[in-house]
Amino acid sequence: MVEMVETATILNQASPRSLVILDEIGRGTATFDGLSIAWAVVEHLHEVNCSRALFATHYHELTVLSDTLPRLSLHSVKVREWQGDVVFLHQVRPGVADRSYGIQVAKLAGLPAPVIERATSVLASLEEEDIRAGMGKLSGELPLFRALVDKAASEARPPPARVSGVEKALGDLLPDEMTPRQALEALYRLKERLDE
Q1: Domain for residue 19, yes or no?
Q2: Is the Cβ–Cβ distance between 185 and 178 less than 8 Å?
Q3: Distance CA 15, CA 48 (A)
Q4: Which residues in the chain show pLDDT less than 70?
Q5: Any residues with CB less than 8 A from the CB of 57 and at least 6 apart, and which?
Q6: Are 62 and 8 within one domain?
Q7: Final residue of a domain: which of 26, 45, 73?
């Protein structure tokens, strides 16, 4: 709430002579809510307030706004990877980050090694699930995620797991065409097959 009250004050008072500095707008809410709020704030600053602004964000999806907002300029901090770690070079350069370094930053901050390993595993699963679910389509349009989508698409998929008889029978059911009694009976038949 504090962040939103402060942002409201800025958007209601900023003028073309203002310098607005915003850091991670929308971070305190659900991902899509936060992204939506950040997106709308950038558009409002650009189109309504016409303020000069520094807008730091981890929502890489916002980079597409540079296609429609002519005065928007994208910059990132230069980073080098060295022996599995990242080194922040404290140089701002034009363009977007080539990828996110959140896990490396967590490691630098001193999170325990098991937490870092688990986060790396969860990230890999989420990225793979994102691609499989088709949500990768949006992120695939963005430069940050393009390499990830290309790599995943080029890798051979493992052979599908063998489908059990119960899974096949379940897949053949048409619940919308069944009465409640028929559905219950089908459920009992499937349960009996599991106990075999």
Answers
A1: yes
A2: no
A3: 9
A4: 130-161, 163, 195-196
A5: 24, 25, 38
A6: yes
A7: 73
- Asked whether the beta carbons of 25 and 44 are under 8 A apart, the reply is no
| Total domains in the fold of the chain | 2
Tell me the residue range of the domain where 153 lies.
Answer: 90-157
Using alpha carbons, select from 21, 38, 28, 19 the residue that is nearest to residue 1: 28
Q: Indicate the residue among 43, 73, 103 that finishes a domain.
A: 73
* 32-54 pLDDT, tens digit each: 888 999 999 999 999 999 999 99
Residues 69 and 1 in one domain: yes
Give the pLDDT of residue 46.
95
pLDDT for 48:
94
Residue 26 has a pLDDT of 85
| Element (DSSP H or E) covering residue 167 | helix 165-172
